[in-house]
């Protein structure tokens, strides 16, 4: 099934060893995958967000990236992960209006033949947040309900934007206890009092029994 939506133009460090093991290869720099070859610059470049989910199987990334390439699209950023028995993809694709029209048709065919749910949505270039400072948040704890909610609620109540968030559940190396790790990037408004924010954050970590770090993102 293919869904197509459009958004209005007016709408809107190093980690400790335990954390490095929780997120092997973790990298806070923007990640880019599968850049299409041969695409020509286009002054009328459009940006499209594509999300796809389907059964985890061999070749799903190949199938979707081939359609994008054949339609003249260019993958600028992507996030992909196996979740349970499903495989999920989120991609930022650039191209012209012809690319968008062709993608809609070709992805519809692909979704029907491969049991995929695909959504494409027009977007625009994200403006730089010059009045914010990117900070890294890293948390490990014994797995318990509500960790993500409490972290999200803490930042939302202070109008702090969450730019990226990844979580992982795993077994502790020696005891086998269920552990939960969170890695986030947040954009902290320059007007906020950082020392007070850090104190409040560490108080929350103590209340929830979390091992937590809040520090500037290293360039």
H/E series, N to C?
EHEHEEHEEHEEHE
Look at the structure and give the CATH class of the largest domain.
Answer: Alpha Beta
Mean pLDDT across the residues is 84
Helix content: 25-40%
Report, as a whole number of angstroms, the end-to-end distance: 40 Å
The third-level CATH topology of the largest domain is: Alpha-Beta Plaits
Instruction: Tell me the CATH architecture of the largest domain.
Output: 2-Layer Sandwich
Beta-strand content bin: 35-45%
Gyration radius (Cα, Å) is 20 Å
Give the total of domains.
2
The total strand number stands at 9
Order of strands in the sheet with most strands? 1-5-2-4-3
Quickly give the structural class. alpha+beta
Number of discrete helical segments? 5
- Main sheet? 5 strands, mixed
**CATH homologous superfamily heading of the largest domain:** ACT domain
Low-confidence segments: 6-26, 29-39
Write down the overall geometry.
Answer: flat
């Amino acid at each position: 099934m293919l869904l197509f939506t459009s958004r209005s133009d007016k709408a809107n460090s190093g980690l400790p060893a335990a954390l490095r093991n929780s997120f092997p290869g973790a990298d806070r720099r923007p990640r880019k995958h599968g850049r299409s070859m041969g695409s020509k610059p286009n002054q009328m470049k459009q940006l499209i967000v594509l999300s796809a989910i389907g059964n985890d199987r061999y070749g799903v990334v190949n199938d979707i990236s081939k359609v994008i390439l054949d339609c003249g699209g260019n993958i600028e950023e992507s996030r992909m992960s196996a979740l349970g028995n499903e495989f999920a993809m989120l991609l930022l694709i650039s191209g012209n209006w012809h690319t968008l029209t062709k993608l809609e048709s070709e992805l519809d065919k692909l979704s029907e033949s491969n049991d995929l749910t695909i959504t494409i949505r027009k977007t625009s270039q994200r403006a730089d947040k010059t009045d914010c400072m990117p900070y890294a948040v890293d948390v490990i704890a014994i797995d318990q309900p509500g960790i993500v909610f409490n972290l999200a609620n803490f930042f939302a109540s202070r109008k702090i934007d969450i730019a990226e968030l990844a979580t992982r559940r795993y077994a502790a190396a020696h005891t086998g206890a269920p552990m939960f790790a969170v890695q986030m990037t947040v954009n902290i408004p320059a007007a906020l009092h950082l020392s007070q924010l850090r104190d409040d954050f560490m108080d929350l970590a103590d209340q929830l029994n979390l091992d937590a770090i809040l520090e500037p993102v290293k360039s």
